[in-house]
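Bumping my old thread because nobody answered last time. Still need a sequence for this structure:
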């Protein structure tokens, strides 16, 4: 343990390779994987081997600088952990850092790591990236191995990098997938389907539109009436799978947060028939979004509808704009973008085609270059 809530464990390193921080739900050989949860922590053994994403990073010269803090069991999006502390938002200490990959985002934002690994089941890379003013990448479901990663939702869990900018995300992808290279894209204007879910703070929508305009992106506005149906389906899949992954921890309810005891117990009520229904909804979501991606280079929308809430004033719905994309399994890059009013930065999600992170990061790099700030 350390006195800094960003880190659960700091590691000594040697050499001059890039510094990699690893969320403490991912195995690093010789260290325990605690998931910032006393019910797990008290019985955690030292990992016998690196998770594949850590092994490939080591093989490429990365220096593992430590295990980062997170929300207990990866289950919440706010970044708050009463057991291990809440990492401090580097932009505004009075606001949430976002979760569940809170420590990973803060470590990068404070310059204590060049790349950090996070996991994203419903937004847990993108939301803390947005809260901390950095970039994050949710990878295509199934592209990056999740062996050696503590399970929450077997079919929705993904591993992805956080970094200060798009080049850092590309470095993170190379750490996880040796040989990864960002694609070349021609100079022709890019096109985007601009998704417009409801109740987005006007200044955030304006920031997204301004960033796309600055990058010369041709935008077609799209509304998705099924969006909230997709949210419910993703959350029920997550809950049903999370129950089977975590139900044994109910044997130690005093070593879990009360909100996790409550949620795990309630998840037992999600029926197999409902899960099948949710899978069918997921196929429909893939069809709708896939059709848009056949016509456009990417989809675009904000990451958060509001600026990060203040501590103690948690508002629901922080995954409203992220979790439907987990249901569809698509890769998504979240980028910080300036607001005209100079208030807390906004965050832009760019959504690419399945297994097309190479093209997605190329498009993200073009947008980033246009709004460099």
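Sorry it took so long. Here it is:
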């Amino acid at each position: 343990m350390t006195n800094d809530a960003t880190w659960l464990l700091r590691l000594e390193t040697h050499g001059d390779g890039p510094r990699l921080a690893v969320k403490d739900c991912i195995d690093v050989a010789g260290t325990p994987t605690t998931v910032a949860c006393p019910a797990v922590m008290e019985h955690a053994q030292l990992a016998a081997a690196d998770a594949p994403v850590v092994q490939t990073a080591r093989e490429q010269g990365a220096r593992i600088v430590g295990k980062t803090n997170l929300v207990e069991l990866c289950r919440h999006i706010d970044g708050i952990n009463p057991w291990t502390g809440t990492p401090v938002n580097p932009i505004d200490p009075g606001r949430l850092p976002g979760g569940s990959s809170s420590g990973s985002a803060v470590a990068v934002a404070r310059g204590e790591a060049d790349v950090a690994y996070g996991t994203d089941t419903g937004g847990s890379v993108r939301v803390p990236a947005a809260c901390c003013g950095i970039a994050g990448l949710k990878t295509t479901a199934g592209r990056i191995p999740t062996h050696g990663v503590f399970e929450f939702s077997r079919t929705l869990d993904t591993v992805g990098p956080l970094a200060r900018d798009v080049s850092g995300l590309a470095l993170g992808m190379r750490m996880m997938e040796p040989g990864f290279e960002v694609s070349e894209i021609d100079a022709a204007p890019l096109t985007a389907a601009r998704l417009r879910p409801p109740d987005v703070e006007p200044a955030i929508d304006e920031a997204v539109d301004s960033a796309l305009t600055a990058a010369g992106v041709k935008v077609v506005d799209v509304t998705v009436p099924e969006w909230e149906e997709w949210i419910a389906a993703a959350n029920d899949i997550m809950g049903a799978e999370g129950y089977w992954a975590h139900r044994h921890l109910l044997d130690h309810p005093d070593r879990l947060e009360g909100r996790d005891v409550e949620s795990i117990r309630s998840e037992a009520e999600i029926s197999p028939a409902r899960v099948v229904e949710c899978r069918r909804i997921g196929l429909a979501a893939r069809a709708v979004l896939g059709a848009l991606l056949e016509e456009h280079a990417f989809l675009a929308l904000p990451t958060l509808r509001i600026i990060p809430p203040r501590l103690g004033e948690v508002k629901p719905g922080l995954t409203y704009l992220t979790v439907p994309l987990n249901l569809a399994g698509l890769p998504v890059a979240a980028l910080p973008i300036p607001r005209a009013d100079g208030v807390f930065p906004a965050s832009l999600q760019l959504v690419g085609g399945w297994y097309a992170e190479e093209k997605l990061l190329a498009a993200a790099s073009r947008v980033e270059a246009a709004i460099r700030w």
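The chain has a mean pLDDT of 96. Let me know if any region looks off to you.
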